[in-house]
């Protein structure tokens, strides 16, 4: 079904809004997927904070103008599905990577993050990015490490004295 001008403007406005707030973009060829498979993909996308949309490339080109994703305009060829990560940068990559394992008809075409466009092979790199919680946990462990080491250093003289007293007591008891 063809869209009229006002519908196209709505699609462009919606995509522009999503693109301006998104952390990353994965575009994939979806030819050969059934409606059920696409529905399953959309369901998983909602659960993981990813905006998935099938739209005409010309509309997407207009929508990404002025955003970090303007670099992909020339690479938008053929029927594409667009996955924008709304919550963390690696979410779209993880979604597409997991879905491709079960559905070989979905073929990643490009990845865009931080104003740079990368080939489809970078979906694995994007998927390996930590989630926000994982990054915060890693940061907390790095920040806690010096405090833990300081506590160990400060406690060591007292434990050495205790060991020495224990050894002296052991010698006196043996004698």
UniProtKB/TrEMBL annotation:
PROSITE patterns: RIBOSOMAL_L10. InterPro entries: Ribosomal_uL10 (IPR001790), Ribosomal_uL10-like_sf (IPR043141), Ribosomal_uL10_bac (IPR022973), Ribosomal_uL10_bac_type (IPR047865), Ribosomal_uL10_CS_bac (IPR002363). SUPFAM superfamilies: Ribosomal protein L10-like. Pfam families: Ribosomal_L10. Keywords: Ribonucleoprotein, Ribosomal protein, RNA-binding, rRNA-binding. One of its GO terms (cellular component) is ribosome. Part of the ribosomal stalk of the 50S ribosomal subunit. The N-terminus interacts with L11 and the large rRNA to form the base of the stalk. The C-terminus forms an elongated spine to which L12 dimers bind in a sequential fashion forming a multimeric L10(L12)X complex. Forms part of the ribosomal stalk, playing a central role in the interaction of the ribosome with GTP-bound translation factors. Belongs to the universal ribosomal protein uL10 family. This is Large ribosomal subunit protein uL10.
